[in-house]
Write a structure and sequence with these properties.
Length: 313
RNA sequence: GGCGCCGUCGCCAAGAGGUAAGGCAGAGGUCUGCAAAACCUCCACCCCCGGUUCAAAUCCGGGCGGCGCCU
């Protein structure tokens, strides 16, 4: 029989961490982060990482596993998470994925094609071409070597154009030809997918509160300390939500009040994108309510209990 | 009661004769090694009525509504 795992997914600020914690306590679980920025060490406040003191003795995995200068990827995540899930199962405990990065979750549960990874030199060359000519030049190039992918990828979508071309030049086969070989690294695990959902107005309120809290907790000092420690401004996690805007503020682009407002706004947009993404997950069950509320926790635990019972039979 | 100003999308707002910028908000979408990223799409019969004109959100008249000032 397949092993069992739970995933707590959904937009930002819906209370995923709290819900995951409750489930972990109830079912002897360990939490596995599924958030692309929380993997970076030193980025704590802006990522809303759960503090060690607040973990109630529950093990949290895949947090603080990468240096700020690393380029952590979905593929790496899929590998790491697969290994952690195996360990947790070996310990006889329940793995609980928790986070909002849909792409990472999909990379883990459905897999990525087993092709080549990033090739920094090749990417550099392609990006230089895009900068000198125009992004759409890469699209025309792709149309010649991999028309099927060119149809799918927008003419200005630099990142995906580079990747498609990279794979083609490295393997001589178009991207789409590789897709058939895609396999889930955890095909032997049954994942119960829980989605947390809140009305837009609630998300908005919570996000505003969270941004204020992040500034109060010293978000700006955290960034200054990282910079002083020598983390370059171009480091990956600085390019993400919260940090990007806060960094601009430190450079004098805008005052703090409008920076807070902007971060809240970006959070709202992010939440919407996440919703659109997770809607596509075919086996996800939605729960309407904040993850910390007992009503939500009870409802989710009921569903988990049911599933556990079914598996007994 | 009189005088003046104003009335463009849910909000802010451009536009002053040639067939409705932009921002916010909202909605939808793509996504196979940068994904808290990148990219794409949709969203106004300009308060009403009449007039002038080939053509009016833009000019004129009259309503209605708002704001300000005066008596």
């Amino acid at each position: 029989m397949k092993r069992f795992a739970v995933a707590v997914l959904g937009p930002t600020a819906t209370g995923k961490s709290a819900l995951a914690l409750a489930i972990a306590e109830r079912y002897g679980g360990e939490i596995i982060n599924c958030d692309s920025t929380a993997v970076y060490r030193g980025f704590d406040i802006g990522t809303d990482k759960i503090a060690a003191a607040d973990r109630r003795g529950i093990a949290h995995h895949l947090i603080d596993i990468a240096d700020p200068t690393d380029d952590y990827t979905a593929a790496q995540y899929a590998r790491d998470a697969t290994a952690v899930i195996r360990d947790v199962h070996a310990r006889g405990r329940l793995p609980i994925l928790a986070g909002g990065t849909g792409f990472y979750f999909r990379a883990l549960t459905r897999g990525l094609f087993p092709g080549p990874g990033r090739d920094a030199a090749l990417r550099q060359r392609l990006e230089t071409i895009a900068a000198r000519r125009e992004v759409t030049f890469l699209h025309r190039l792709l149309r010649k070597v991999d028309p099927e992918s060119a149809l799918r990828i927008q003419p200005r979508d630099l990142k995906r154009l580079v990747r498609a071309l990279e794979v083609y030049f490295l393997t001589g086969r178009p991207l789409t030809a590789h897709f058939a070989d895609t396999q889930s690294p955890i095909a032997d695990v049954e994942v119960l997918e829980i989605g947390l959902r809140l009305p837009a107005a609630d998300i908005s309120r919570r996000v505003t509160r969270r941004v204020d809290a992040q500034f109060a907790r010293g978000l700006l000092d955290e960034i200054r300390a990282l910079l002083e420690r020598g983390v370059p401004e171009a480091a990956r996690p600085f390019g993400g939500l919260v940090y990007r805007q806060a960094m601009e503020h430190l450079r004098g682009v805008r005052d703090e009040a409008s920076t807070r407002a902007l971060i809240a706004q970006e959070n709202r947009r992010y939440a919407r994108r996440q919703l659109i993404w997770f809607r596509k997950e075919p086996n996800l069950s939605w729960f309407d309510g904040p993850g910390e509320s007992t009503a939500t926790i009870d409802a989710v635990q009921r569903v988990i209990a049911e599933r556990l019972q079914e598996r007994e039979r």
